[in-house]
Amino acid sequence: MKEVKISKLQYGLLVFTFFFGSTLIYNPAESTKTDAWITMLLGTIGGLVLITVFLYIAKLNNGKTLTEILDNCFGKVFGKVISIYYIIFYLYKSSLNTRLFVGFMNSVSFTETPVIVIFIVLSIGTLYSARGGLTVIGKTSEILAPILLLSSLIVSTSIFTIKDFTSFTPILLEIAPVIKSAVNLLSTVFGDIFIFLLIIPYTNSKKGLFKTTYWVTFIFFLIVESSILRNIIVVGPLMGTLTYTSHVSAQLIPTINIEPIIDISLLIGVGFKIVICLYAVSKITADIFKLEEYKPILTAFAVLNIALGYIILPKNADVFIDWTKSYGQDFIAFLPDLFFPLLMLVISIFKNRKKTQDVCA
User: Fold this and answer.
1) CA angle (146, 152, 153) in 5-degree steps
2) 234 within domain boundaries
3) Model pLDDT for residues 295-322, shown as the tens digit of each residue
4) How many domains does the chain have?
5) Does any domain span residue 29?
6) CATH value at residue 86
7) Looking at the domain assignment, is residue 93 inside a domain?
8) Percent of the chain at pLDDT above 90?
9) Which GO CC terms are listed, alphabetically (predicted)?
């Protein structure tokens, strides 16, 4: 499969859409109310640290996928065990984003439509895209990611229609909730960057990947931060108490209707995140069992994704979003988003240093 190649632009667009995901439905930063803009800033700074770790792991293990890096760092047995953990984790992430999107659409846009119907329609679309392979996913991103970028800019710049900026005070009355929400932001958005260790080996050029990833992160930060500022101005201290803050603030902005634009942004962002997660779990499974293609097992994971989202995860929107804000979410993400990557980086540095010393000797 390593003959498959995507361009650096396609890689950047995929990272952007993946980060965006379901952020408009649920942004951990908004639980800190008027301090949400500070939380987003702190979370992004922490995210840049994780992104740097990811980029150096990719650089030190040039051409290796996540599964191959794990085998190289931890050995065949433990490497496979950790790979299975990543399968479970990314399947959970896929189900989480599916449930968030379906819950939002059922509560806001398609209130009379049975939830299972929305689940199935979304799953068919994402399955079809994932079965097309990485090349198709990359080319699709060239079409849909600019639409997501444009619609996000429209949503974010709606802030300029508002003149009252008194909602930003008081600032930092409590520091602990800001830090907790920033950590939660890491576990729900930036920490998942390590999934791209399954995609970077298939880029047609490794030159400039650092710059591309940092620029994409910066653009994502500007758009989401602008959206947060808009929400603070419009709903003020009610942030953190509303289930769908962006939707409510969109309804309250006079002279402009941005609700359909939010729906488009969500569909593209969540769709790509689910596609990449389904691709990841299928690819890792195929690598573990030495399968030539990941596509034959993709349908099984898509069905499992529906089952997890529809049957297991909480159906009440408030309960579900409270779970995503909890320490349980951060605990689940600790190993795959921080502990294992740091170990991979340290081991990769030592292995590369030893290889250099052996060559010099």
Assistant:
1) 90
2) yes
3) 899 999 999 998 888 776 666 555 555 6
4) 1
5) yes
6) 1.20.1740.10
7) yes
8) 39
9) membrane
